[in-house]
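User: Hi! I have a protein structure encoded as tokens and I'd like to know what sequence might fold into it. I'm fairly new to this, so please keep things simple.
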């Protein structure tokens, strides 16, 4: 009688062969993902470097045909403090074209103010909005006046120095632009996507103001952006407008980080050169790349100067909360470090 054949379990054999196979497949997929990620990161770095080199070259060509205006000098630091050594503080000033109410001569005033502070130690960027209806001491004026009047009295330098004294923060750089410049900038980058909180309808034939926006997710052009930014005819008035300005600024920075804005760099440089009052040299391409790299990896956080709205429409800073906010933005230097 022939010997019986010993049967082996096919299930056991399959399990033994499948486990190494599954491991190899998973390892292969992981390696493929890592290779793709490495390629994307390296490729992005090369593309960005080439693009900004191209942008620098294009602007150099533009300068040959259109000599640039003299570079405005930095504003001297209002005071020195070791606490602020690792920060770059820039004041963004939105300028209105309308006459200043209550002043005999017509002039432009600061319609929106936002401090941008960059921490060079960790790459963080902080935004702090300042209501234009803050009454404060202004050099050359006998009594406290609205912060918005500083641009009328002394341009960007006086506005910068006044904000520096108000916050006790050294500020040396500024960017001042009006609504037309903002509209040009938005149209150049192809508009921005933003959710409009409510229907906005307002007409003022005297000033020529016309606002008509529909509630909902919108693709804002330059003109629509102007309407969104100037509207203040709701229950919150100026405070609601500041909140919209903060939201707009965040959406604008996010759009700037998108690849579709890259071909517009030469036009952006042209707008910067001819339509903006600033003492920042945007042609320092290495600093621009570092800034964009930081913005692309940093969550945009925008806050408003703490305070209270009183019946007259003035915004009265809450000194205790302002001090806390400034300490959060610029942590005090330990005494032993300050003495070194």
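Assistant: Happy to help. Inverse folding works backwards from shape to sequence: for each of the 340 positions I chose a residue that suits the local structure. Here it is:
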């Amino acid at each position: 009688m022939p010997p019986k054949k010993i049967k082996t379990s096919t299930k056991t054999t399959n399990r033994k062969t499948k486990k190494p196979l599954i491991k190899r497949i998973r390892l292969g997929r992981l390696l493929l993902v890592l290779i793709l990620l490495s390629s994307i990161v390296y490729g992005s770095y090369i593309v960005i470097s080439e693009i900004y080199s191209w942008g620098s070259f294009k602007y150099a060509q533009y300068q040959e045909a259109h000599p640039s205006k003299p570079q405005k000098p930095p504003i001297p630091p209002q005071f020195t403090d070791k606490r602020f050594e690792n920060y770059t503080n820039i004041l963004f000033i939105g300028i209105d074209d309308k006459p200043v109410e209550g002043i005999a001569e017509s002039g432009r005033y600061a319609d929106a103010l936002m401090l941008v502070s960059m921490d060079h130690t960790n790459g963080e960027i902080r935004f702090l909005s300042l209501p234009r209806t803050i009454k404060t001491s202004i050099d050359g004026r006998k009594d406290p006046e609205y912060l918005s009047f500083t641009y009328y009295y002394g341009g960007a330098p006086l506005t910068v120095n006044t904000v520096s004294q108000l916050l006790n923060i050294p500020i040396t750089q500024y960017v001042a632009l009006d609504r037309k410049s903002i509209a040009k900038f938005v149209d150049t980058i192809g508009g921005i996507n933003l959710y409009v909180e409510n229907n906005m309808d307002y007409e003022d034939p005297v000033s020529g103001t016309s606002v008509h926006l529909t509630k909902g997710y919108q693709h804002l052009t330059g003109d629509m952006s102007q309407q969104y930014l100037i509207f203040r005819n709701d229950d919150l008035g100026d405070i609601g407008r500041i909140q919209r300005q903060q939201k707009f600024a965040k959406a604008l920075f996010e759009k700037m980080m998108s690849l579709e804005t890259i071909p517009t760099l030469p036009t952006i440089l042209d707008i910067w050169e001819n339509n903006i009052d600033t003492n920042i040299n945007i042609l320092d391409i290495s600093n621009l790349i570092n800034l964009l790299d930081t913005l692309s990896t940093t969550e945009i956080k925008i806050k408003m100067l703490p305070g209270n709205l009183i019946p007259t429409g003035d915004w009265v800073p809450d000194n205790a909360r302002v001090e806390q906010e400034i300490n959060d933005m610029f942590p005090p230097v330990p005494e032993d470090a300050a003495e070194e």
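A useful reference point when you look it over: The two ends are 99 Å apart (CA to CA). Feel free to ask if any position seems puzzling.
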